[in-house]
């Protein structure tokens, strides 16, 4: 039964090669596939041409290549954050969008209200330079991308083309923190791999 084993290996290989790409706001640099598991997709320096971003009523537009995934957004108020610790407070990550689960591949938009986060994160205000980092997991490990922003209270909505191509479905907020997220990721890859493997086996 060599063929089924090979088929399952192919499924596992495909499962760990999917990706995500931030469309808006503009990320720190061009997407680098091999650097996705690294801090900010491998970019450790903030850009000079930051994106002017709404202090309230912002959105994030990203492309997912996973059928089922989770995401979270954290923020740093350092001028040039170059490591994960600069997105931390004494209580952990400075979260501005809590972990949520989503299904389907393609372009998705979700809201981000940085003004609301100002209650818990010092330095978020009109004119502030901040960096957001998306933590993404499609079941095959954590992936990261960053965007350097300048916040504007006068910008009451993102540009019209920021949500171009988005197709949204309901998101489910994770009830737990780290442990719950890992469990979700494990179920995602286990269910996905098992389903694809069974389809391949039945076709042989």
TrEMBL record:
Keyword Protease: no
Keywords, sorted A to Z: Cell membrane, Glycoprotein, GPI-anchor, Lipoprotein, Membrane, Signal
CDD domains in the cross-refs: LPMO_auxiliary-like
Limits of the Copper acquisition factor BIM1-like domain: 17-170
Signal sequence, renumbered to the chain: 1-18
KW ATP-binding (keyword) present: no
Membrane-topology descriptor: Lipid-anchor; GPI-anchor
Gene Ontology CC entries for this record: plasma membrane; side of membrane
Locations listed in the record: Cell membrane
Taxonomy, superkingdom: Eukaryota
Protein name: Copper acquisition factor BIM1-like domain-containing protein
